[in-house]
Design goal:
single chain; elongated
């Protein structure tokens, strides 16, 4: 009988967090591009640009330390 390997969920957790930043990027880009003058608009275009920048900076904040650790171990 083979001994059970301990599962490492770190990679799955990182992917889930990255997806939580990446998926809204598509929505925000669509909202910025298709910003119309309709009355249903509650947020301005600047709000969507700010949210887009926050998502991008969140991705950088997650990926940068991982890259630095990987380079340090090589």
């Amino acid at each position: 009988m083979k001994p059970k390997r301990k599962r490492d969920f770190t990679g799955m957790f990182i992917m889930a967090v990255l997806l939580s930043f990446i998926l809204p990027l598509g929505y925000l880009v669509v909202r910025i591009v298709s910003h119309g003058g309709g009355t249903e608009e509650v947020r301005s275009r600047e709000d969507y640009v700010l949210m887009l920048l926050q998502c991008l900076l969140g991705i950088v904040a997650i990926v940068l330390p991982l890259r630095l650790i990987r380079q340090k171990t090589l």
